[in-house]
Amino acid sequence: MYETTYHRASSVDEAVSLLGKAEDGKFLAGGMTLIATMKQRLAAPSDLVDLRHIDAMKGISVNGRSVRIGAGTCHYDVASSAELRAVCPALCDLASHIGDPHVRHMGTIGGSVANNDPAADYPSAVLALNMTVITNKREIAADDFFKGLFETALEEDEIITAFSFEAPEKAAYAKFANPASRYAMAGVFVAKNGGDVRVAVTGAGSDGVFRHAGMEQALASHWSADAVAGIHVDAEDMLSDLHGTSEYRAHLVKVMAKRAVAAAG
Questions:
Q1: Any bridge partners for residue 171, and if so which?
Q2: Residues of the chain scoring pLDDT < 50
Q3: Which stretches of the chain are assigned E, i.e. beta strand?
Q4: What is the distance between the alpha carbons of residues 62 and 158, in angstroms, rounded to a whole number?
Q5: What does the alpha-carbon distance between residue 122 and residue 182 come to, in Å, rounded to a whole number?
Q6: Which residues, in sequence order, are bridge partners of residue 26?
Q7: Max Cα separation, the chain?
Q8: For a designed S-S bond to 188, which of 49, 140, 228, 256 qualifies (C-beta 3.0 to 4.6 A apart)?
């Protein structure tokens, strides 16, 4: 690892100020990806500004079916929230299968979404649940947030502070995990709210997380695992690597979608 200067911010304003003074600084929101990248000397930020000790960015609040989750909330707290599970158990289940216990106690929902790793779980939930991404500057709709592999709508000095959404009638997440890393080789999050159906796919797309319009239309007409059985998933749009070919991932997307719909009930 290259030399870096560590800063512990106590507020969002302080974090932005510290980053502005750095030559080539990075925000640290758990570090599950960034620290590993630095250890491999693939990243060498001059400064790290740690966001994990900003209390205002933590916590989960549920008012009726309206949910707000602080971006600094760790995966374990999302997984174990009784309030959240009462209205959206799918999100709790997603968080409970991220990495291992060490990762779940250190990694944060904000860090995962801001990094937009193509194999991360949370981006699919943000899209499928139609979350609003709240930053220190503005509010960004889920459909406008993700721009491609490791790319988002965030500006350099912009920090995700929270997420908000209305819990759907039905939702579930199913993923085929890499047995070593637990990253999603294909993960599908489905959500139904009245006639509105959203299907988001992570881990498989060559351009990162995406919504599958064909599955959404089929499920809006008939909410059943059988409804997606005949839907085409284009292998040309899928990732292909040593873990699986694009054709294999296209098959996995359909299988995970059927499992998610069945789990949602």
A1: 191
A2: none
A3: 5-8, 25-28, 47-50, 60-63, 66-70, 132-135, 139-141, 146-148, 151-152, 160-166, 170-177, 184-193, 196-202, 210-211
A4: 25
A5: 13
A6: 48
A7: 56
A8: 256
Question: What is each CA distance from 154 to 120, 140, 150, 204, 214, in whole angstroms?
Answer: 17, 9, 11, 23, 29
State the pLDDT at residue 212: 98
Q: What is the pLDDT of residue 153?
A: 98
Q: Name 253's Cβ contacts closer than 8 Å, sequence gap at least 6.
A: 186, 188, 201, 204, 212, 233, 238
Is 221 exposed, middle or buried, given 0-12, 13-18 or 19+ CB atoms closer than 10 A?
exposed
**What pLDDT is recorded for position 32?**
85
Written as one string, the DSSP assignment of 109-161 is HHHHHHHT-TT-SHHHHHHHTT-EEEESS-EEEHHHHEEETTEES--TT--EE
Which has the closest alpha carbon to 154: 133, 175, 179?
133
Tell which residue, 165, 162, 108, 155, has the closest CA to residue 135.
162
Give the pLDDT confidence score for residue 182 in this predicted structure. Answer: 86
Give the residue from 128, 165, 131, 143 showing the smallest Cα distance to 261.
Answer: 128
Tokens found for residue 210: 């995406």
CA atoms within 13 A on the CB side of 89: 7
Q: Are 48 and 6 in contact (CB under 8 A)?
A: yes
Q: What domains can you pick out in the chain, each with its CATH number?
A: 5-50 (3.30.43.10), 58-166 (3.30.465.10), 170-264 (3.30.390.50)
- The residue type found at 185 is M
Output the CA torsion sign for 15, 34, 151, 259.
negative
